[in-house]
Amino acid sequence: MNDVLTWLLDAVQSVDPVLRTGLAALAILLETSVLIGLIVPGDTIVIVAATGVSSPLEGLGLGAALVAGAIGGESIGFALGRWLGPRIRGSWVGRRIGEHNWARAERYLRRRGGLAIFLSRFLPVLHSLVPLTVGMSGYSYRRFIAWTLPACVLWTALYVSIAAGAAHSYRELSDSAHYAGYIFVGVIVLFAVGVFAAKKIIGRIERRHMHD
Questions:
Q1: What pLDDT is attached to residue 155?
Q2: How far is residue 77's CA from residue 165's CA, in Å, rounded to a whole number?
Q3: Alpha carbon distance 20, 12 (integer Å)
Q4: What would you report as the CA-atom Rg of the chain, rounded to the nearest whole angstrom?
Q5: Of 2, 83, 111, 166, which is most buried with the most CB atoms under 10 A?
Q6: Alpha-carbon distance 193 to 199, whole Å?
Q7: Separation between Cα atoms, residue 152 and residue 204, nearest integer Å
């Protein structure tokens, strides 16, 4: 396993850091602006990009680029909602998303306000729909950014630090411990399971509150 993991991590790290960072930031921007996040989760993109981090400075650069990409994407999503929201909702893509998901995002925003914007960054489906829904609601852009910026920073810091830390620890152990690969995979799997479980729990709590 070590040989395969080393090859994969080296392949990611061999990509020019500027290019790798730019592609990750672009992917995050597209995630919430044009609903790409409904198809390709941003979590996966960030984890892959973060495993290639080779220094604290590179990690900070990746983090800053991801936050900028996330804010840019959510801002575009907000603008699209403000100017084209009903058309997008009534389009083929909007119908594929499902009216129940649009209604869920509206109820979520109506009940939770700014907290809904913050928490949506951590929830599947909603993190792609909420910026559009907020734009359609008449909510001010300043208040929207005030809630989404700290969420984007926290989300990015969590994913980059854990993925980069796991990859760095693996590289240090791989030459001396044959089980290093299992530790790395275990950390990533536990993190992914923890995130999945947390999203499910938060989503279940929010759905319960919306139906009360």
A1: 92
A2: 32
A3: 8
A4: 18
A5: 166
A6: 10
A7: 22
Integer angstrom CA distances of residue 61 from 13, 17, 129, 149, 164: 15, 9, 28, 17, 13
Burial 32-63 (b: 16+ CB within 10 A, else e): bbbbbbbeeebbebbbbbbbbbeeeebbeebb
**185 within 8 A of 1, measured Cβ to Cβ:** yes
Integer Cα distance of 25 and 22 in angstroms: 5
Q: Could you tell me which residues come within 8 angstroms of residue 208 by beta carbon, excluding any fewer than 6 positions away?
A: none
CA-closest candidate to residue 131, choices 207, 209, 70: 70
Q: Give the tens place of pLDDT for each residue, 190-203.
A: 766 666 666 566 55
Q: What angle do the packed helices 56-90 and 141-173 form, to 10 degrees?
A: 140
pLDDT over 60 at 207, yes or no: no
CA–CA distances in Å: residue 116 to residues 89, 104, 129, 147, 202 = 20, 11, 12, 9, 11
CB 102 within 8 A of CB 129: yes
The pLDDT mean for the chain works out to 80
- Select from 87, 96, 106, 100 the least CA-distant residue to 38: 96
Using pLDDT thresholds of 50, 70 and 90, give the confidence band for residue 79: very high
Confidence tier at 50 by pLDDT (50, 70, 90): very high
**In the block, which residue shows the tokens 């990409």?**
69
Q: Which two tokens stand for residue 102?
A: 């649009």
For residue 92, the tally of other CB atoms under 10 A from its CB is: 7
